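STRUCTURE:
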């Protein structure tokens, strides 16, 4: 699917939404692309007046729903994700230090994709925001701009904090 995504983006598409389509991811993409309404003629989406709740670390009900209500499968998927998180964390940090934003974007995309099959809203939101920021930075050629650097750093910090919180969360108490 990553190859298909890359091919479609290379062919001129602005973005790509893969399955399973999650409501909050779709809303995030719509908000992201309509923020540039002055350029495209689209109306801006007004932010909600009520504060959004902070996403939880693990949403067990969502994990069960995404795994066809199979607790063993949901737990296995969580373990598979958490087992790979140290490598994801290290790769993101290394790529950031080396200013290899392409590699960083690929890892953020991989991580964000994995979170869409498991009820981990905090990490899903953080990794999605990092991926979107990296894509925007690449498309606008602003990787050297100071404000872009600050945004990337902030997004990376949010992902790293979400990873640490998820790694610290006891999984075996869930099932």
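SEQUENCE:
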């Amino acid at each position: 699917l990553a190859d298909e995504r890359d091919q479609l983006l290379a062919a001129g598409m602005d973005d790509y939404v893969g399955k399973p389509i999650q409501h909050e991811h779709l809303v995030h993409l719509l908000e992201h692309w309509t923020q540039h309404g002055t350029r495209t003629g689209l109306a801006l989406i007004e932010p909600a007046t009520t504060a959004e709740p902070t996403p939880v670390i693990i949403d067990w009900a969502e994990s069960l729903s995404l795994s066809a209500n199979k607790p063993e499968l949901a737990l296995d998927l969580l373990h598979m994700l958490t087992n790979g998180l140290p490598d994801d964390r290290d790769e993101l940090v290394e790529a950031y230090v080396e200013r290899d934003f392409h590699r960083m974007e690929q890892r953020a995309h991989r991580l964000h994709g994995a979170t869409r099959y498991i009820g981990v809203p905090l990490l899903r939101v953080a990794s999605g925001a990092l991926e979107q920021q990296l894509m925007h930075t690449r498309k606008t050629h602003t990787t050297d701009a100071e404000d872009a650097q600050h945004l990337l750093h902030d997004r990376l910090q949010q992902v790293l904090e979400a990873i640490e919180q998820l790694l610290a969360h006891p999984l075996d108490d869930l099932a």
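REMARK: Helices lie at 2-10, 23-34, 37-40, 60-66, 71-97, 101-115, 121-140, 146-168.
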